[in-house]
Specification:
Elements: H1 2-18, H2 24-52, E1 61-63, H3 65-75, H4 77-83, E2 86-89, E3 95-97, H5 99-115, E4 124-129, E5 142-149, H6 181-191, E6 195-200, E7 206-213
Parallel strand pairs: 2-4
Antiparallel strand pairs: 1-3, 4-5, 5-7, 6-7
Helix pairs in contact: 1-2, 3-5, 5-6
Length: 215
């Protein structure tokens, strides 16, 4: 990442020290360069995190999801305020897991819901226990956690593809991101020997269901 760090550092210096000497288009080109470098840095971080996930050799322990989600809400407080959104979390049972990975899982899912909100509509995100799973998806010894939003949703045919690395359903100009968030979620869930799947309707929101072992 060192060459990229230097690119961002000297780009920032160029803007602050000589930006006033550049013509209008030159300033715009510089801003685009800095934005692209920032996205590349995020992508590299995401790839590193994704590749290192399988090397985490920590035993599963009982995790208090209620407390964990308080931390997630705190971490996303600024984004919630910017979006005028609301996160509603119902009481959840403890699960068996790795705390730092589960926090990343729910952080990604809630952040994803806030990012893909509808224009002019305050995002509503709810997290609750799912008690109405079809028989084929319910598993003994596992609890189903449902994360539901009222965002832009997606067509049913993309329900599987959105978990692939670098998958993008929407232009990056409108929705920033690396395309790794949901792929990382799936890998975290698999690390817990669980399952995750998504359901969506265009313009009517999305629902992500996560099966995790009971604590």
């Amino acid at each position: 990442k060192e060459p990229l760090r230097k690119l961002r550092t000297f780009g920032s210096r160029l803007a602050s020290e000589y930006g006033h000497l550049l013509p209008g288009p030159g300033t715009g080109y510089l801003q685009k360069m800095e934005a692209s470098a920032a996205r590349m840095s995020q992508m590299i971080d995401g790839v590193l995190h994704y590749s290192l996930l399988s090397s985490i050799d920590q035993q599963l322990m009982e995790v208090d999801l209620d407390g964990l989600l308080l931390h997630v809400a705190s971490d996303l407080e600024v984004l919630l305020q910017q979006k005028g959104g609301r996160l509603q979390v119902e009481p959840l049972p403890p699960v068996a897991g790795i705390p730092v990975l589960l926090q990343q899982l729910f952080y990604n899912l809630v952040q994803n819901a806030l990012k893909f909100s509808r224009a002019g509509v305050a995002p509503e995100v709810s997290i609750s226990v799912c008690t109405d799973l079809p028989g084929g998806r319910a598993e003994p010894g596992y609890v189903a956690i449902r994360v539901r939003d009222n965002g832009i949703g997606f067509a049913p045919e993309f329900a599987t593809g959105i978990f692939k690395t670098f998958a993008r359903l929407h232009p990056q100009e409108r929705y920033e991101g690396t395309g790794l968030g949901l792929a990382l979620c799936q890998k975290i869930v698999q690390r817990h020997r669980g399952r995750i799947w998504a359901e969506g309707t265009p313009g009517a929101g999305a629902t992500f269901t996560v099966l995790l072992p009971v604590g």
